[in-house]
Amino acid sequence: MSASETPRKPRGRQFFANPGPTNIPDSVLLATAHQTMDFNDPNFLEVYDGCIAGLKQVLRTQHEVFLYTGSGHAAWEATLVNLLSPGETVLILESGYFSDSWAQMAKDLGLEVQMVAADWRRGVDIADVRAALAADTAHAIKAVCVVHNETATGMMIPLPEVRAALDATGHPALLLSDTISSLGSLDYRMDEWGIDACVGGSQKGLMLPTGMSFTGVSAKGMEAHKTSRLPKFYFNWSKMMTRRHRSFVGTVPISFFYGLQESLRLMLQEEGLDNVIARHTRLARAVRAAVQHWSGNNGPQFFCLNPARYSDSVTAVMMPEGHDGDSFRATALQRFNLSLGGGLGPLGGKVFRIGHLGDLNEPMILGTLATIELTMKVCGVPHQAGGVDAALAALG
């Protein structure tokens, strides 16, 4: 193609391998195209109640769930303002771009932030978490905030180990977790793991459009809410509890619930939640087998260097020296119609990310991996050819 020619969009359906938003099943898309109706209509209330019950099944909780029209950041803010008061301290476990964003939000809301620092490539040391909690003899720390699955780095933080650190030190702080890129993809057990508040969003494992989020809250969390003094109105759980829907201070986004009803049917009835988690584990192993193979010949490397914490929903891949991840992604998109995730914050241009969560199967993963390898060949990125064969062996 000459410099004067206009690039043409590749034919065929786009392969979307971004870690969020994710692919939306056709049946979910069709379900969201629902006619307008009164959100107090008994027919809708039946759908709504079923969705709340199903969402609790996915969270594995018997506790309260509050919903908002807004992305995951809205649920972060709602959770902080409903549980805490000005000047109180939160302990945030560093994991990457999103833990840092959560910390900045807390500071902007007037909270004191204490960080447990960590190497983004290896993850937080739980011994450091225990030490920070043990040192807080006055129990100034009111909440411990953990991103369960750090989308930016492809790393999972083991929440049961964080709960164990709290229990071992006898610390009464609330345990808050971001489960935005783990719910419906990784095993998550809110009640069993002693999570006091968990934040989730519609656009990842739940396979919905972006725009709805929620917080699951334990009984201990609800007690803390009674004395919280940070300003809130739309996000105020007390206001929500006076409404029939126990959520949404304002109009309820009905179309989301028809989509959520179908998404929950696919997850809980058609496939089964345990099988959903097992599928993500299986496909993630195939992706990692390919990346491990490509790393030969000074090729791309895993960004996460802690195999025990590899994410089953997203893999971050570090580009070889001298090769730009954003240029690589642009070639994959413009020439082959493959959409990959980019590096966030300080990782911009240094990594690309393969999302393997939500509505996907083996052909979709293999097609994505084959196209990544083709793009490496076209871009002259050093690698060991044969990553797809390695993925096939992992699936076999």
Automatic annotation (TrEMBL):
Annotated region Disordered: the residues are 1-21
Q: Which cofactor does it need?
A: pyridoxal 5'-phosphate
Pfam families named in the record: Aminotran_5 (PF00266)
Superkingdom classification of source: Bacteria
Q: From the UniProt record, which GO molecular function terms apply?
A: transaminase activity
Membrane-crossing residues?
A: none
InterPro entries reported for this sequence: Aminotrans_V_dom, PyrdxlP-dep_Trfase, PyrdxlP-dep_Trfase_major, PyrdxlP-dep_Trfase_small, SP_NH2Trfase/AEP_transaminase
Q: Where is the Aminotransferase class V domain?
A: 19-321
Q: Which keywords fit this entry according to its UniProt record?
A: Aminotransferase, Pyridoxal phosphate, Transferase
Family in the record = Belongs to the class-V pyridoxal-phosphate-dependent aminotransferase family.
**What is the name of this protein?**
Aminotransferase class V-fold PLP-dependent enzyme
Its taxonomic placement starts with:
Bacteria, Pseudomonadati, Pseudomonadota, Alphaproteobacteria, Acetobacterales
